[in-house]
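re: that chain from earlier
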Amino acid sequence: MPPSQKRIPGQVRKAKIIRAAASLFAEKGFSGTKTREVAVRAGVSEGLIFKHFPSKEDLYAAILAEESPVPGLLSRVRKLAEQQKDVEVFSVIAQTVVGGAPDSHLMRLILFSALENHELSDMFFQNHIRGFYDFLAGYIQQRIDEGAFHPVPPLIAARSFMGMLIYHRLLTVLFHAQLPHTAEDISRTFVNIMMNGLKVPPLKGQARVSGKTRKAQKRKTRKA
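^ sequence. v structure.
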């Protein structure tokens, strides 16, 4: 059989379908994209799409599973968090987002789904975003309890940090508002803002104390 007529492996065809659907959903939205358009762009039959993905919703879920940066990022920061490497935890997150995650296609797809279909945006939030925020807020609370961070509502702190990054990503993707700085400098600045607002400098000649111990010390000082 000539090379041009060789049968394409199923996983390759499936990957082509996912890439084609992701680009079309990003351009036209979930509701505005027809499966026959996905078939044309992927270079496959419409029937083959339904063989791999019984519905458009299944295809959407496959795109998220394939292209979402959250699982890989969460795996990396968990390892750093176990070692209590505070700056590294936030740096890896910042470098990932500032460096281009999620990519423009995935970001537009997510925004379209949020505007068009609550069920799809909820799928993304529950399966990808919620777990990440729970982890980050939990880590911040742990470090508060250990006396490393100022006592603040941990989920608000997590949203504040991610809010800076996601807003920067939105400006870059949607409005092409580039900054005259390197990605490394931008990431470092975001991390410095976060850490200078949370980090408690160690007292000279003293070990760090927990948030509860620090409050008790303040009460004793006031009584004195």
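Residues 1-5 have pLDDT under 50 and may be disordered.
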